[in-house]
Design goal:
single chain; alpha/beta; Ribosomal Protein L25, Chain P; Alpha/beta knot; eight-stranded parallel β-sheet; five-stranded mixed β-sheet; elongated; tRNA_m1G_MTases_N; Ribosomal RNA small subunit methyltransferase E; rRNA processing
């Protein structure tokens, strides 16, 4: 039986808990819950809680947790997408769809040709973007939430390339291997990062720096894709190739 899902930003210590803030507003004023209404809560750490409403007020409500259990709906691969921020609302679309797919981490990346620079507004943007990932997890029944890192410069990110089993940089460099052929050469991998550049692509010097850091240049296809399209396409291909 379908139950509406809501985010619980902490692990409950008792069976009876109070909910307030945005989620309480949604339950009370959008879903118009009453005492006895059954809901599902998830904590973003893999746990799911079956509960029902016991008391309601104008701005908060009390629920009783009937059952708690660990429910793993995550893919068997840890994907990080580092992306140059696209213009306008396209970044919302990118974050939403990558979160729905099960991408574990998103890293906003500032490159030499980046058009959008939010380095001075990263805190403000992160709060709004985190809400998008929460809503995505609610919608697609993930019990974990995609993590969005603070904006990183290209050079800073290169210092972390070695921590991944496979580090990729999407580019249109001549004679670059296709992602399909590369994945055939690497039949296993648990922790993977792929860098998606700005509209004008990575500069030759950035690609050279990335290769020296251990990143492998790959081509996603014959077309030159938009940032958000490339991020979703790469995520889907990696999930298809490596998920059990």
């Amino acid at each position: 039986m379908h139950q509406d899902r809501f985010y619980l930003p902490h692990t409950p210590a008792t069976h009876e808990i109070w909910l307030n803030g945005d989620e309480a507003h949604h339950i009370l004023h959008v879903k118009r819950a009453k005492p006895g209404t059954k809901i599902t809560l998830f904590d973003g750490k893999g746990f799911e809680y079956r509960a029902h409403v016991t008391e309601i007020f104008s701005d908060k409500l009390k629920v009783f947790i009937e059952e708690s259990k660990s429910v793993d709906r995550e893919p068997g691969i840890d994907i990080t997408i580092a992306f140059s921020i696209p213009k306008g609302k396209l970044v919302t679309f990118l974050i939403q769809k990558c979160a729905e797919l099960g991408v574990k981490t998103l890293i906003p990346l500032h490159c030499k040709r980046s058009v959008v620079d939010i380095q001075n507004k990263s805190g403000e943007k992160s709060e709004r973007w985190n809400k998008i990932t929460i809503e995505a997890s609610k919608q697609c029944k993930r019990n974990c939430i995609t993590k969005i890192e603070d904006v990183m410069t290209f050079d800073s990110l290169m210092k972390t390339a070695h921590i991944y089993d496979l580090s990729l940089i999407a580019c249109t460099k001549p004679h670059t291997k296709t992602l399909k052929s590369l994945l055939n050469e690497h039949p296993s991998g648990k922790k993977i990062i792929c860098l998606i550049g700005p509209e004008g692509g990575f500069t030759p010097s950035e690609i050279e720096i990335a290769e020296k850091a251990g990143c492998i240049p790959v081509s996603i296809g014959h077309s030159t894709l938009r940032i958000e399209t490339a991020a979703i396409a790469v995520s889907s291909m990696l999930l298809y190739a490596y998920s059990a």
